[in-house]
Design a protein that fits this description.
The protein is mostly helical. The protein contains 5 helices and 2 strands; from the N terminus they run βαααβαα. The protein has helices at residues 9-19, 31-47, 60-64, 73-79, 87-104, and strands spanning 7-8, 69-70.
Length: 107
């Protein structure tokens, strides 16, 4: 999903939540606490023999702990690609597509 204007990660998450009929559940924790929790979650996941990474992981803490800006200008300058949709429409269409395919795949 990409639009023609920059958007913050938080704004994008809010659009996804709205499109899915949910609301964003903000959770704030100091970085040290979040990293400690992520370390524990990863270790427990390993001990349980799970192959997928837990939701709270060492990589997710810095990624989701900051409000990065999503910007497609690099794709425009290097590939000549231009986003044509506004983010709200693009997010709504992607959530609609996902929900339709989730049903057909038996999930």
């Amino acid at each position: 999903v990409a639009g023609h204007d920059p958007i913050t990660q938080r704004e994008l998450y809010t659009l996804y939540a709205k499109a899915a009929g949910r609301r964003v559940q903000p959770f704030f924790a100091p970085y040290r606490v979040a990293f400690a929790g992520a370390s524990i979650a990863e270790r427990l996941s390993q001990l349980a023999g799970r192959k997928e990474e837990p939701v709270l992981s060492l990589i997710s803490v810095p990624v989701f702990g900051q409000d990065f800006t999503v910007d497609s200008s690099r794709a425009a300058s290097e590939l000549g690609w231009q986003g044509t949709a506004d983010y709200e429409r693009a997010v709504n269409e992607s959530v609609k597509w996902y929900l339709e395919h989730e049903k057909t795949n038996g999930r």
